[in-house]
Each structure stands twice: as structure tokens, then as C-alpha cells.
Amino acid sequence: MAFQILLNIFLAFIWMFLKAAYDPMTFFVGYFFGLLILFTFRRFFNSRFYLFRIVAVIKLFFIFIRELILSNIAVLKVILKPKLDMKPGIFAMPTELKKDWEITILANLITLTPGTLVIDISPDNKTLYIHAMDIEDAEDAINSIKNSFEKAIMEVSR
Amino acid sequence: MKSNDIILQTITKVTLFVIILFSIHLFFAGHYYPGGGFIGGLMTSGAIVLLLLAYDLKTVAKILPVDFKIVAAVGLLFAVGTGAGSLLFNVPFLTHAFGDMNIPLLGETSLHTATLFDLGVYLVVIGVTMTIIQTIGESE
After folding, report:
1. How many CB atoms lie within 10 A of CB A134?
2. Which positions fall inside the Na+/H+ antiporter MnhB subunit-related protein domain (chain B) (predicted)?
3. What residues have CB less than 8 Å from A104, skipping those under 6 apart?
4. Which helix (H) or strand (E) holds A123?
5. Are residues A155 and A60 in contact, defined by beta-carbon separation less than 8 angstroms?
6. How far is CA A71 from CA A16, A28, B88, in A?
7. How far apart are CA A58 and CA A63, in angstroms?
């Protein structure tokens, strides 16, 4: 990914030298043409075309915003309920993510969306221990949310 | 004996894109400076030939899954289309038009339909050259 971005910036500079015009506009035009060329030859690289990955990052961001709003509303409902009938609990979630930063982002996303909280991560980085505010009706739903987060993170790092 | 082409392949990975960028520069320079669709297309196919030299036909077919005969056909369609487009405005065949347009990001740019004709030439040149080279390369 870094190689592709570096190559694209390099191509933009070559475009500026070819045009003998050193303004930001020429840089952007050169960057655009570099992007087109890189897209045409995207199968040439070992990793994916890097713009797909940037799209995946933006998608992850919007998934996070959506989950944040939805689960805050869910917590609001729990708070405003007259009866306190929720059942808190801790459960383990196996994760397929390997790299350190992926696990960190997943844990932060789980913690920032209310209702769940990451307490600990097993030493071999394979299991996340999560405290859930309402475990009985939520475990399946939460696991599906985890899958969406985990999938979105995998989409970024693939 | 199979030799290790790692240096050639690594250099190709960067040089290829510089050559294609230069060919695009030549293509757009055509109106005011030396250049144009023919030399631009020839240089683009030169870059693909470099790819063919560094790798093999199968790899290139995987990287660029394009039928170059279709590229040539699309190029001809562009050229004929710009020519025939002038008939819609009650002017003779191949009459070109140009105008200044305000494109976001680029600012005031003058657009000329001759560029579309040139794009046709560009695609035909790539298509024909690559078809010739690939056909010769594939025959035993």
C-alpha cells in the first residue's frame, strides 16, 4: 500500500517536471493520471489497489458512527426504563484478527460503542473478554455487530 | 536454464508507470507542442512491451485482461463518432468544435473535440501494435 502511494506521488512530481509548472493544480492532475495508471495496472501489485483500502477505512468510520448512535439510544432506553431487569455478564469472543493494530482498533470500537466493554485480551491475542451490560438478549446481536466490525477491519487490512 | 529476472522486473515496476505518464503527457501536448495520439499510443504500447519483456504473455494477460482487438475497435468508434457527431449540428463531416468550459478543480479549460478524435487514434495505435506483437509472440 505504501509503495503504491509513494509511486503515485512520484508520478505526480514527474508530471510537474514534464509540464514545467510547479503549482498544486498540476500536482493534482498528475496525481489523478497516476491514479488512473495504477488502477489500470492494479493486478500488477501484490496488494490491492490502495484506493479500495481508503474506501474501506471511510466505510469503517461510518459503521462506527452508526453503531455509536444506535447503541447510545439503546443505553438511553435501559436508563429510562423504570424496572432494572438487565443481566450483566462477561463473555469471551474469539477473534481472527492477527496484527496488533487491528486488535487495538477492534477493542476500542467495542468499548466506545456503549453496552459492551473490553476487559482483557488473552495472552495469545486470540480471545477478547467483553463485559456486556445486558447479556441475555444481546449476545447474538452483539456478536453480529462484532462480525461487522471485524469484517470491516479485515477489509482494511486485507 | 531459467535466469532470475528480479532486477529487470523491479525496475519495470517503476519505469513502466513513468513511461505511461510520459505517453499521456505526449498525448495531451499534441495541440500546442510535438506529440499527439499516434506517438502517445505507440509509447503506451512500448511500455506494455517492456512488461512483456520482463514477464511473459500469460502474466501480462492476467495484469491487463484486455482484448486489444476490441481496444482498436473502440478507438475507431471514437474517431468515427466524433466525425459523425458534427452531422447532428448540420455541419460537414469531421467539423470540429471547441469551447471554454469551467471545470471544477481545473478552472477555465478549453475543450476541443479533436482531442476525442485523437483519443480514437491513441486507442487504435495501442490496439493494433499490441495485437501484432501478441500474435507474433504466441505463434510457435
Report:
1. 19
2. 7-131
3. none
4. none
5. yes
6. 49, 40, 59
7. 9
Break chain B into its structural domains and give their ranges: 6-138
What is the b/e burial string over B49-61, where b = at least 16 CB atoms within 10 angstroms of the residue's CB?
Answer: bbbbebbeeeebe
B40, B19 Cβ separation under 8 angstroms? no
- Give residue A33's Cα distance to chain centre: 28
A17 vs B contacts (CB less than 8 Å)? none
Contact A11 B21 (CB under 8 A): yes
Q: Is the pTM of this model over 0.80?
A: no
Reduced DSSP (H G I as helix, E B as strand, rest coil) percent helix, strand, coil of chain A, to 5: 65, 10, 20
| Interface residue A40 vs chain B (CB under 8 A) | yes
**Is the domain A50-157 a CATH 3.30.70 member?**
yes
| Residue ranges per structural domain of chain A | 2-44, 50-157
B18 interaction partners in chain A (CB closer than 8 Å): 11, 14
- The Cα of A23 is separated from the nearest Cα of chain B by a number of Å equal to 12
ipTM of the complex in this document: 0.75
Neighbouring C-beta atoms of residue B48, cutoff 10 Å:
23
Inter-chain contacts counted by CB atoms under 8 A, chains A and B = 42
